[in-house]
UniProtKB/TrEMBL annotation:
Gene source species: Bifidobacterium biavatii DSM 23969
Compositional bias ranges of the Polar residues kind: 43-55
Protein name (database record): Mutator family transposase
Compositional bias (Basic and acidic residues): 24-38
InterPro entries with a match to the protein in the record: Transposase_mutator
Keyword Repeat: no
Gene Ontology MF terms in the entry: DNA binding; transposase activity
Superkingdom: Bacteria
Reported function: Required for the transposition of the insertion element.
Pfam families: Transposase_mut
Family stated for the protein in its record: Belongs to the transposase mutator family.
Positions of the UniProt region annotated as Disordered: 22-70
Lineage, highest ranks first: Bacteria, Bacillati, Actinomycetota, Actinomycetes, Bifidobacteriales
One Gene Ontology term from the biological process aspect of the record: DNA transposition
Swiss-Prot/TrEMBL keywords: DNA recombination, DNA-binding, Transposable element, Transposition
Length: 97
């Protein structure tokens, strides 16, 4: 359950990646693969980068952090240049949970 590929680590990965995807959707103003009225979007998703973060409960977790084309996306739950997540619960109010 808490081992290298344990349930807690997989759950943490899924929750973090889902939150990051939702933050990207909010940032861009449209869903993944959705086009604007004229068929083009000024800023779009531009892939992901793997990042290993350390959590108190699950230990190190490798996640995929999304990027946008113009580099203006600034994640809230997993901040740029940070590798340690000490209190993920404190971020929930910022995400509207």
């Amino acid at each position: 359950m808490t081992g290298r590929d344990g349930l807690l680590r997989q759950f943490t990965k899924t929750v973090l990646e889902t939150a990051l995807d939702e933050q990207m959707t909010e940032h861009l103003g449209h869903e993944k693969h959705e086009k604007s009225a004229d068929g083009r979007a000024a800023n779009t998703r531009n892939g992901t980068t793997a990042k290993t973060v350390t959590t108190e409960a699950a230990g190190p977790v490798t996640i995929k952090v999304p990027h946008d084309r113009d580099g203006s996306f600034d994640p809230v739950i997993v901040k740029k240049r940070y590798r340690r997540l000490n209190d993920v619960d404190s971020v929930a109010p910022m995400l509207g949970a």
